[in-house]
Amino acid sequence: MTDSIIDSHIHFDLYNKKNRLKILEDTDLSSMITVSSDLKSGIMNLNLAQDDQRIKPALGYHPEQPLPSEEEIQKITVLARRYKHRIAAIGEVGLPYYLRKEDPSIDLGPYVTLLEYFIKLAAELDKPIVLHAIYEDADLVCGLLQKHGIRNAHFHWFKGSSTTIQSLIKNHYYISVTPDCVYKSKSMNLIEAYPLNRIMVETDGPWPFEGPFKGKLTHPGMIHDSISKISEIKRLPIQTVYSTIYQNTTRFFRL
């Protein structure tokens, strides 16, 4: 079990059935946190979780899209409350960084309001929160988390300045890295700067990767390459890295 892995952030509902079965054949895969993008995604993830105990759903609304209706927000909330004991977290939630890059006229205010709503829901249900909050958005999100006394926060595929990285470390928040850490210097620098006991690994699948993974189906097995790179950067035995990251993830999501 020393090489057991947990994918801390995957969109399992976005894979077709054939590829889902292929992923579940991986005997090293202990668990996966499958985050939701909207109500439909959340329902599908809850259903998928009934087929395999390794599938741990999270409910939320991905910020890189138009705002949801009030009805959709309420239905997601009802699901989260009803299945409180079956979900691992509230997520994926956050702020629309890339959407605003494409259209700077987008009003951030309603997205902040929605995120704050989900932060309150996570607090109410005593669940960790999985965040899409990068670069300068992370500073704003840190403020919201502090305002509501949230400690269990996971900044997935984090990107940000050294100042923001220090802020996350100071608040004991968790980050996760993707297989791009094998070939991207920014991700390598983040690994070097961040304490190992607050790092998790993810694929964000089915998002595709470049480098040695170009043209390949994104799958949790790629996490072995990420762990190997973390071991190299941290100058630690690879089994120490496997063990620490596994413990980090089980502790954070209470698996």
UniProtKB/TrEMBL annotation:
InterPro entries: DNase_TatD-rel_CS (IPR018228), Metal_Hydrolase (IPR032466), TatD-like (IPR001130). A divalent metal cation 1 binds at residues 9, 11, 92, 204. The keyword Transport does not apply. SUPFAM superfamilies: Metallo-dependent hydrolases (SSF51556). Keywords: Hydrolase, Metal-binding. A divalent metal cation 2 binds at residues 132, 156. CDD domains: TatD_DNAse (cd01310). GO terms for molecular function: hydrolase activity, acting on ester bonds; metal ion binding. Belongs to the metallo-dependent hydrolases superfamily. TatD-type hydrolase family. This is TatD DNase family protein.
